[in-house]
Design goal:
CATH class of the largest domain: Alpha Beta
Number of strands: 19
Distance between the termini: 56 Å
Shape: globular
Number of domains: 2
Number of helices: 10
Radius of gyration: 20 Å
Amino acid sequence: MGFLGLEDGQLFEGRLIGSKRKAIGEIVFNTGMTGYEEILSDPSYFGQMVLMTYPLIGNYGVNLEDMESSKPHIKALVVRELCDFPSNWRSEQDLNSWLVKHNIPGIQGVDTRHITKIIKEKGVMNAIISEDKPTKEDWDKVKAYKIKEPVKKVSVKKAYKIDGSGKNVAVVDLGVKRNILNCLIERNLNLTVFPYDVEPSEILYGGFHGVVFTNGPGNPKDNKEIIENIKALIGKKPIMGICLGHQLVALAQGADAQRLKYGHRGGNHPVKDLKSGKMHITAQNHSYAVIAETLPKNSKVTFINWHDKTVEGVKYSNNCFTVQFYPEANDTGYLYDEFLRMM
């Protein structure tokens, strides 16, 4: 037995999975039918409990080759039903064993559809998972919980190189997913992956032909140092921004961003390319969006979310372009080729 308590006081009874330790975090939902391995290991989920809306999770087990980083970053996993006996030739272990190994708690048997509706109505909130009913002290901790310095905690601590035969690219790691690096590697780029706080001078005078600011967790406005560093690079090096990188480049260009009520998370978000008119089904994971009306005159919105019409891509006249979605996870991988052409 176990309990999931929402910040507004609603309590749901279920069965604990994974580690049996108590967990407090920000609860968000993901609408993907598959991809739970990538979700569990995506650094952009740092400090968050992930509720999967698809009712059965774990049916194809865990394959470490599909992980987006070396370890999980979620606070906890919430599912309707966890599959105990996966069936897949690539599976290396069942999901519950993997959760136990990495000390990640979770709960199953709760009404995930109802909880999703609550989040959509009230917005993202904090939550607790515990073996016993939460105490008053627990509820106080839930209400006080904040995700602190997430980019600092998920970024690489020391720069490293990935050799290639093409252009020299600086990748500023804000919580990078492996697939982003793989897409750059596939294009034979010579990569140097830097920590989030790399000095602009290291990039400006390091022989780099372009810069990529990656995905990552948290509120973009909390990253004032990174925003100032981007300002020092704008107009001097071609820049590509992805997810959090998209938001930070916009802030550095003078735009503003706002928190969405419940964010975009999943592998089925429709995004329209305003140039070609083509619709793409994209993978996303973010809580904030760039405000179109605040974008500078030297910019042009290139993609919009077809659900809520929020900004999904921007091109700037000073040799920068950014996208909110993950371009490596769908048929928009051509955007990496556009970055090559910019360089």
